[in-house]
Amino acid sequence: MGKKGEDTRTRILDTAQDMILGNGYAGVSIDKLISRLGMTKGAFFHHFKSKGDLATALITRFADDGVELFKESLARARKFSSDPLQQLIILIGQYEEIFENLEDPYPGCLLASYVYELQQFSEETREIINREFLLSRKELTGLFREIMKKYPPRIDVDIKSLADGFMSLFEGAFVLSKSLQEADVTYQQLQHYKTYIRLLFDPKLAA
Amino acid sequence: MGKKGEDTRTRILDTAQDMILGNGYAGVSIDKLISRLGMTKGAFFHHFKSKGDLATALITRFADDGVELFKESLARARKFSSDPLQQLIILIGQYEEIFENLEDPYPGCLLASYVYELQQFSEETREIINREFLLSRKELTGLFREIMKKYPPRIDVDIKSLADGFMSLFEGAFVLSKSLQEADVTYQQLQHYKTYIRLLFDPKLAA
DNA sequence: ATTTAAACATACCAAATGGTACGTTTAGCA
DNA sequence: TGCTAAACGTACCATTTGGTATGTTTAAAT
């Protein structure tokens, strides 16, 4: 595929994602999509063999990007410190950087959008979505295990669900942010998550 | 409206809500809805003058129920204790009761479903949704203010976003629960929220 | 300069969509 | 019992839907 074709494909994906996050997958017809793209049906079906093909390409890209961001952030955190608690704090901080000083509310998470329309998609789609949730659960649970070994928690907590809380945080914050049209919700919830972690494990707070 | 008509209307609302939480609003056609209801188009349009009318009736009912549950839970909590921190703990506990020992993952929140299709709805719809978010924000912020007066927090936190965290918790947990098909996600996140609150304010944890 | 395949446009189709007009049945009340 | 309005069924319609068949243009390699 040539460069121009690849660009067009990306443009379709970007516009489709933007529209889906505001209308849902079923709420975005191909006609409306190509109309906003200033493109014809022939062009669209040259790049995607069906609407379902677009759906799969979209969620795959979104999930892969999310996983990549998570892995990179974790790797960077591991470079900056050898202490597991500091690594987690740094990891959260990197997400804080992304969501602080946003002008507009975050457009939302495509995973969540799909989850509320899951019966429209194949089982494969659910697996693609779960792959991201389960990966962060696994990585964060491992990190929490290290933290727990070094820093006994003030209150005993389940670390798997503590890890889930991180992903859950975004999904929840995005919903509130979108509806209330407040851009800082996600950043604030990240701060609370960080505070919770520090209260649980950080010995410096003993004073 | 007679009793039978009212029953039918409720049946339509219940079935529509169930289908929308799995397919999205645009993903549920009237044909599919009445097919699952074993009902004809004439019957449906006797009770709702349009699909949008159904949408409004649904979100209004859902939001009102949510507000009512919240107000009742808060009122009950205020009866059981005069201490604001205990009131909040009791309030959370009542939601824990709802979400513990669930057999199936919670079907989801209609507010969130609508939020990811907001462009399909009127501005009124957004206001109905925001009403619930803003009410719980207001009530909880007030409660946190009382708590803070009596129990100085271990770490200084923003109480408005701390209140938002409660609503956000559900929205996030529902997404994970639906996708992973795990019924206990919401209950676990409620426990973490409670733990966070206690770590912030509960003086008994000073030991 | 010619070929070739990717990139896109045009015109069309069967099915599904939300909605309406109008007919029939049912339940309660005078 | 007869009347009336609510409750529901049938048949139909214009539009939109996802998708296809068949073109034309563009860009790069031979």
Topology:
The structure is a homodimer of 207-residue chains.
Chain A: H1 3-23, H2 30-37, H3 41-47, H4 51-80, H5 84-99, H6 110-115, H7 123-150, H8 159-180, H9 185-201
Helix pairs in contact in A: 1-2, 4-5, 4-7, 5-7, 5-9, 7-8, 8-9
Chain A binds a DNA duplex (30 and 30 nucleotides) through residues 1-2, 4-5, 8, 29-31, 39-47, 49-51.
Which terms summarize this structure?
homodimer; 207 residues; mainly alpha; Arc Repressor Mutant, subunit A; Tetracycline Repressor, domain 2; 2 domains; 9 helices; DNA-binding
Folded structure, characterized:
The structure is a homodimer of 207-residue chains. By secondary structure, chain A is an all-alpha fold. Chain A has 2 domains: 1-48, Orthogonal Bundle (Arc Repressor Mutant, subunit A); 51-206, Tetracycline Repressor, domain 2 (Orthogonal Bundle). Chain A has 9 helices and no strands. At the A-B interface, α1, α6, α7, α8 and α9 of A face α1, α6, α7, α8 and α9 of B. The structure holds a DNA duplex (30 and 30 nucleotides).
